[in-house]
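Could you join me in thinking about how sequence relates to backbone shape in a protein? Label the sequence line and the structure token line clearly, so we can match residues to local backbone shapes. Once you have written the record down, we can walk along the chain together.
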Amino acid sequence: MARGRKPGFVMSAEHRVKIQNSNILNALIEHIEGTREMSATQVSAGLGLLRKVLPDLSQAEIKSEVVHRYVARLPEKAKSTEQWQQQHAPPTIQ
């Protein structure tokens, strides 16, 4: 059974870019691990290319205002001060 792509297969530009970006990242990782020798210029160029393709994971502050709405059920308005005092007086201890 034959392996690989069928004749006439064309890889999309998006996939080509992803492969190129992963190759840059792999080269930098190999340099850090000591398995690949790179000059300072190559390292800085690789880091510059990575900054262009990978999102910067810096801290972002999100400000928003949350409005809480509620319904308060209030007792009926007392018609006199005597009635209010009867409703709100502390219970008497006997």
Remarks:
- The helical segments are 13-33, 40-53, 81-88.
- The chain has three helices and no strands.
- The longest helix spans residues 13-33.
